[in-house]
Design brief:
Chain lengths: ~45, ~220
């Protein structure tokens, strides 16, 4: 039973960990994009 | 509308995963000689299958990239390779957990185990190769590498049949020698993991597209 629980936990920890990693990357890029779009809209001032 | 479709997709995925946990934990019978640890087999096999499916996608996208030179196709290959490595990591980690109580060893240099480890390293190298930037030459080289690396996928599948191996063979020429309830649990597991693969691939692709947009915008702002 112990080995089964360890195996099961590893699989879901890895998959959820990867999902969380992708999710955080997405959020970070969305924030960056927002800032860059604001800068782009600002035109010469932004430069 | 877009959010609704996403929510429906997530709901289906959740139902599949929860259903899979129920089927493996409650519905599937306990194997007589191995006991509960045999249930590791359901996600060990499923993750191996999905990992290999992901590498088939890398192979096809690599061919398509060399033909069409499409950035989108390259992004699908990168996303698929990354997810494949995650699933093969699950396979490589759950295998020893089953092996220790059954074989009395965590690891042995069996053909199936060795080829799977080599497969993991090959695709980890592929990701490293793709991670170096968006230069056309690099992408082309990665596509050629993605085609060559695929040679190892059928090798992993047939290794336990071609060479002397202690690794169990579930799918043989006579079909699957399993209890019907175990078969159902295995199919349910493969379906749930496939849905997870699709979901993760979509997520990863959207990140890659977003990164491309950020890079383009940054370049436009600089020059």
């Amino acid at each position: 039973m112990v080995y089964f629980v360890i195996g099961y936990s590893i699989v879901w920890l890895m998959l959820l960990g990867y999902t969380a990693y992708v999710h955080f990357q997405q959020k970070k890029l969305e924030r960056q994009l927002e800032v860059l779009e604001e800068l782009a809209a600002g035109g010469p001032k932004a430069r | 509308m877009r959010l609704d479709r996403r929510m429906i997709g997530l709901l289906i995925l959740t139902v599949l995963i929860v259903g899979n946990i129920y089927i493996i934990g409650i519905y599937a019978p306990i194997e007589r000689t191995m006991g509960v640890v045999q249930k590791v087999f359901y996600f060990h096999i499923s993750s191996a299958w999905i990992g290999m499916l992901a590498f088939v996608v890398v192979f096809l996208c690599s061919i398509l990239y060399l033909w069409r030179r499409s950035e989108e196709v390259n992004q699908v290959a990168v996303a698929s390779a990354e997810i494949g490595v995650v699933f093969i990591s699950c396979t490589l980690l759950t295998g020893p957990i089953w092996a220790y109580p059954i074989w009395n060893t965590w690891w042995t240099w069996d053909p199936r185990l060795t080829t799977t480890l080599v497969l993991w390293f090959m695709y980890a190298a592929y990701i490293a190769l793709q991670g170096g930037g968006a230069a056309e030459n690099r992408r082309r080289f990665a596509a050629v590498y993605g085609i060559i690396a695929f040679i190892n996928v059928p090798l992993v599948f047939f290794s336990a049949r071609w060479w002397r191996s202690i690794h169990p063979v579930i799918v043989s020429s006579e079909g699957m020698n399993l209890d019907p309830r175990m078969k159902t649990a295995l199919y349910a597991s493969i379906i749930a993991f496939s849905a997870l693969y699709v979901h993760l691939a979509k997520m990863r692709l959207s990140v890659l597209r977003l990164r491309k947009r950020v890079e383009t915008l940054r370049e436009n702002l600089v020059y």
